[in-house]
Write the structure tokens for this entry.
Amino acid sequence: MKSLRLPRSPKVIIGLVIVGFFIIMTVIGPWLAPYNPSSTAFAPLLSPSAHHWLGTTSLGQDIFSQLLVGARATMVVALLAGLAATILSMTVGIAAGYLGGMSDEGLSLLSNVFLAIPGVPLLIVIDSYLPVSSRSNFFVIGLIISLTGWAWGARVLRAQTMSLRNRDFVEAARIIGEKRTRIMFTEVAPNLLPVLASSFLFTVLYAIGAYVTLAYIGLTSTAVWNWGTMLYWAQANNAPLSGEWYWFVPPGICIALVGTGLALVNFGIDEFINPRLRAGGLTSRQRRKLGLPRRIRLGLTPVIHSTSKRTVVAAPAKLVSR
Amino acid sequence: MIADPLKTHAAAAATESPLRRVAPVHARHEFVLEVNNFSVDYGVGEDMVRAVNDVTLKLRRSQVLGIAGESGSGKSTLVYAMTRLLRAPGVISGGDVTLNLANEGDLDDVTPLSLVTASERELRNIRWSHVSIVLQSALSALNPVLRVGREFNEVLKTHRKGMTRSQRHDRSVELLKMVGLNEDRLARFPHELSGGQRQRIMIALALALDPELVIMDEPTTALDVVTQREIINELNDLRSRYGFAMIFITHDLSLLIELADEIVVMYAGAIVERAGASDLYEAPRHPYTFGLLNSFPPLHGERRELAGIPGSPPDLAELPKGCSFAPRCPFVMPRCRLEAPPLTNIDGLDRSVACWLHIGGPSVRVPVELSREMSPLRTRFTALEDRA
Amino acid sequence: MSVSTSPAQLSARHLTRHFATRVPGKLFQARRVVRAVDDASLDLVRGQVTAVVGESGSGKSVLARMLARIITPTSGELVLEGTSIPSRAKRTLAYASKVQLVLQDPYASNNPVHRVRHSLERPLLIHGAAKHEVDDLARAALSRVSLDPPERFLDRYPHELSGGQLQRVSIARALCVKPDVLLADEPISMLDVSVRLGILNLLKGLCENEHLAILYITHDIASARYLADEIIVMYAGQIVERSRGTALVDQPTHPYTQLLIASVPDPSDPTSMASRSDEHSSFAVPEIGCRFAPRCPFAMDVCRHSDPPDFIVGEGHTSRCWLYANEPEAVVEMALPERRREGGNDEDMKMSN
């Protein structure tokens, strides 16, 4: 793989920081929580204070603890769903794109069907058939969310595979006698990593939304704390109307932040895939120092006056000009 | 077709061209383009790579200058930067490029314009009407959703505001005829035309406003050899009729020898040799030119093993100290690795070379190999040995 | 057919490949057939280089892929080591171990995410090398293509190597299976000029030292002349002229070959510039008759009505042209510039200034 370049763009850095923060929260959240989130020991509907940073619910539960503990379920389910969906889309998409013919027709049909069916209603239907016990199982929920989220990625991967299929190195692999499945997964798939990564992030984003929606509707087990369940309870107790912002705003913000973070990281991957989206090799600081315009326009190559003559440069700015 | 003889480029150049009325009295009149100590970098600061290093050249009116080189030679970067068309992260880091424009073709009224300091408005005024460029990707430079006639129309409308629609149409037809295409091509889309036809259209577009200078960057590389021959003949014919100067960039040195009046050979961003085409062919001075000429298997004569040049073109980010060709040079001397030779005039003629073999003074003898190799021109090179 | 007396390693007999395409704009019309390769026969002999020269669209690449059996011929047969191979049969691993193909663009034909080591190990493992031998065999392969020391190259990625080096890696990869026949589809056209001869010399060396049969496909007749023991010229899917050695370059008989040679830039021959012509390259290939007839200055009535067969015009030299029907020895020499004989006089070559 090409050497990993540290992302320079501020967008990506912010995104990574946000996502990183929430991953940390997932790991140590329950440990940090001051109280048991289900414990109704406290006075109900307290405003944020030193004892309860985000106040309490109408049942007297500490909201801050709920938030911290809820992070885990939300993030883990979303990540699991993202992973499962990506594996599914990879298998279906690459196979369809590479094999072509009837296999392609069949697999494309499958993914088109899943694409056409609206995700969340399907989830609701599937979920309602689940035995209550498994509604608290992360894996099961993650799996069924992935069932509604894989189709888009499959289409993208199929298109990319089809364009890669005709490349010379795939033909070369065939010429030396490589088997089909090996070509698909050792030659084609590694070239799809940026697309896979992007597809994964996008699916995680979708999964968070789906999970929160399910929880908000009350279809997941209320024994497991997650941000969606918090919203469910808040809504059920008319928190928005009663002005108890400290109950529903924090989980809402967290969900929004995670989504934003993931989207920003996605931008970074886009720039990684397509180097032309990068800042043209000159950072804004460099440009300012040289007195160059903020945006370099085509047809007006900038002119700087350097005094150095032939310099033997050690830096690895690789130039392949042709 | 094949039967008709000969139109050597010498014969073509001898034809009276409209811009030659006035005898040149001033450098401005004689040279349409003057490039002085021109340098181009990619990036700045630590990561900077020098793609064009201190290039000086002059182009006479109605002359063909050929620029030969391989990857990393800087030949394309040079002309794009000269016309300020180089994309980021390219920057011009030194030197000057002056275009001596004859207003309305009148050589008494010549305005020099420095392309390096020109404003956007000035650049826009001269682009296409005085200087046009046929890019390497010319074949895909035509807008696929526009018919060919529309492309011509746009160019004429933008630069010749006074023309009426029918005048523009007539001019388009005239331009097509000029490159040997039928009028009905105006109604076609680019994808309906062959590579050779599209290239002819690009040339016609480049000549639409009767420029003084036409720059062509590898215009025939993607075409087959028969079409290439047709296009080259076309260009020669047009040049003799309209008298524009041409810069022709290619890696195919044997093509340049036929086509160009003067050839500049570039290596690792710098000019290593400059000479008239026939002089270059008969007596190349720089070992790189010599090796390059030896890299084209001949069509006739004895079949013998040729060596080409060992190694490969250098990485511009990691150029060696001293002469950049030293690692591959069969005639390398200790001095070559320490100090880069400057481009120097030699033989008292209008040719220059950047090689210690020819600058050292009377004590440096040209190696026997350089003077005797390369059949079938054995006899030519013995003269070199005497001279050294 | 080749007049070589040694048995051919791989022979093509009357290979034909047609592609059916829809006529654009007409939904229900009969489909047009593109005859990419028509009735091509050739022999590849061990220790010899056979060059196929043609422009894009001449069918040379399709021919190579039919010989490599990654495209199935519409008709015709392949004979490998005397055994005929039915067209409909699948390409076997055994065939792949005998016949290998090297492609044009070294950067495209090497997977950018894999190191050189991986590219060499795969063919070795697929064709039966033992795991512990693979490293040594990979190094040996790199040495055979003059990439020394092999360690410097094994762990590199394709983008870290130059075009010439990477093309050598592609050749090494093909050699790993220990083929008898090496097909090279324009192996040097995407390389820098100064690097090309190195690869050509490498191919020549492999042919002689390892006794391979090499098929060299190119659009550049000069490099074909440099390398080949037999030269074949293709136009619009057909073989129009072939000869042993350099006979067809020194004395081209087919009008297309003559046109080709006259068009090549030849600085040693200043009179080689043909006169101006009007967009001849746009001529479509006719359905009946000789395919070159629309562009041929010597076209006769018979040319427009029937496709000429091969006529013998010299020893080991055939030409598919009606001009030679009655007089096989007559070589039409129009007002072509004097062909330089071997070791000729330099004085005539001074370019007029």
